[in-house]
Amino acid sequence: MTKREIKTGSVLLAEPFMFDSNFKRSAILLCEHNEEGSIGFILNKELDMQVDELIADFPSFDGKVFFGGPVQTDTIHYIHNVGNLLEDSVKVVPGVYWGGDFEKLKFLIQSDMIKPHNIRFFVGYSGWSDGQLGDELEWGSWVVANMFANYIFKDKPKKLWKRIMNNKGDVFSVIAQMSESIDWN
Fold first, then answer.
1. What's the CA gap between 165 and 118, in Å, rounded?
2. In this structure, are residues 83 and 92 in contact, taking their beta carbons and an 8 Å threshold?
3. What is d(CA 185, CA 125) in angstroms, rounded to the nearest whole number?
4. What does the angle CA 42 – CA 76 – CA 47 come to, to the nearest 5 degrees?
5. How far, in Å, CA of 43 to CA of 157, rounded?
6. pTM for the predicted model, two decimal places
7. Do the beta carbons of residue 31 and residue 162 sit within 8 Å?
8. Which runs of E-coded beta strand occur in 26-138?
9. What CATH code is assigned to 3-176?
């Protein structure tokens, strides 16, 4: 996938030497990418909390919460694989949906129709204005990859950046093996 092929449903992998702590070794799913800008969620920065701790009237639920990005960290978003049950969901790629009717979501969770393995919650999001992401791609800040539902719903978040980078093959497999801490001696 080339830089020009970035689209909704792409995964952005931070280049291995990115120093921004918000994005270091991050894998970001782009849920929206158009001429106005881009919105995505960091898939591999799990927070030590449950969603029912964040939302007052939320049913008891062992749902994982992730740091979605540094924009509007007072908001909660969700990605799931039950788009057929949750009205107003936006299909991102096959088997991956973003958002949907929040009251219906709570009902489906209370009814035990949505389990923790079906959904991930995000505090904040990652966003780029028109042209900003293109510039960052030109500078080499991101590697673009294809998205597969298993990356969210089956893989271990801590190993996700390495797994996706490795799956790209060629030189990216070598990059995936690089240590997170570089010794410049």
1. 24
2. no
3. 37
4. 50
5. 7
6. 0.91
7. no
8. 27-34, 37-42, 46-50, 64-67, 71-80, 90-93, 96-98, 119-129
9. 3.40.1740.10
How far are the Cα atoms of 53, 69, 76, 87, 99 from residue 108, in angstroms, in the given order?
18, 27, 17, 11, 14
pLDDT in tens, the chain (185 residues): 444 578 999 999 999 888 888 999 999 999 999 999 999 999 999 999 999 999 989 999 999 899 999 999 999 999 999 999 999 999 999 999 999 999 999 999 999 999 999 999 999 999 999 989 999 999 989 999 999 999 999 989 999 999 999 988 787 776 767 776 655 44
Q: How far is the CA of 117 from the CAs of 83, 114, 130, 168, 176, in angstroms?
A: 14, 8, 34, 25, 26
d(CA 128, CA 161): 20
What six digits make up the tokens of 52? 């029912």
Return d(Cα 161, Cα 151) in angstroms, integer: 10
Strands (E), the chain: 10-14, 27-34, 37-42, 46-50, 64-67, 71-80, 90-93, 96-98, 119-129, 142-146
- Give the residue extent of every domain in the chain: 3-176
Q: Which residue has the tokens 């389990």?
A: 115
What's the number of CA atoms in the CB half-sphere (13 Å) around residue 61?
A: 28
Give me 155's structure tokens: 């893989």
